[in-house]
Amino acid sequence: MRKRRVFRSAVLGATGIALVAGVTTLASATPAPQAAPVALAHPAKAPKPTIVLVNGAWSSSDSWQEVIKPLQAAGYPVVAPPTALRSLSGDSALLASYLQTIQGPIVLVGQSYGGSVITSAATGNPNVKALVYISAFAPDTGENASALTARFPGTHITNDPNAPVPTALTPVPVPYLTPDEKPEIVLYAKAAQYRDLFLSNRVSVATAAELAATQNPVASTALGENTSGEPAWEKIPSWYLVSDDDHLIPPAAERFMATRAHSHIVEANTPHAAQVTNPGIVVDLIERAVAGTR
């Protein structure tokens, strides 16, 4: 009897060892659970900047049409608020207020007199990441458009530098006074000279006549009003299209202003209104400015 119990215990003991061994073997054969894969976080794309287009004298927001189309097609928010063309200080203050309503980064583009406006309006606005000058004025403190035009030879706006009003312009009195109670005069570009002055004869006579008919005149005081305060190009990076065939602002004046502002300069065989005749060049420069601020 004792031997049988011993044998039985031995069998049970062996069986227990086998079971334990089997469990051990199964446990070692079962792969350990794998950690769930961690999704890699991709940085969110920065929003495209809003492109703000500012027209100059003797034109309108419509002059940007062929620039607006490809920029919008590329996904940029684009706005072209009209320039009042009544005083540099007033035009700049109005644009500065408008820029405050735009959220996110801004690339600010000015053509001709619009360059003077953006130079003042952008100062102190941290959302403005780049300035783009298209055949434009980029004045320093205490300078005005009229003086910068006359600083270098080559403009077609007058053939008499001593004339009180440039010969390509028609002065028209308006029935109100300036803040300092002087009679106000607005200046229209003469239709017969519009095609040469702004477009260097690169569009048809009919097209030039249409543009001349819808021009916005500029107050004489706006062109003679000096820029006040620090120019925005002192702290904001800038890009500049020098139009080598500009008949209004001498190309030498454009090079001078662009170099002084430490702008990224592109020179092209374009007229003063390059946004009308060569919109592709203008769009390319704007996109360079966008890329340069990322």
UniProtKB/TrEMBL annotation:
Residues 51-284 form the AB hydrolase-1 domain. Residues 1-29 form the signal peptide. Keywords: Hydrolase, Signal. GO terms for molecular function: hydrolase activity. The keyword Hydrolase applies. Pfam families: Abhydrolase_6. The keyword RNA-binding does not apply. InterPro entries: AB_hydrolase_1, AB_hydrolase_fold, Sec-Metab_Biosynth_Hydrolase. This is Alpha/beta hydrolase. The lineage of its organism: Bacteria, Bacillati, Actinomycetota, Actinomycetes, Pseudonocardiales.
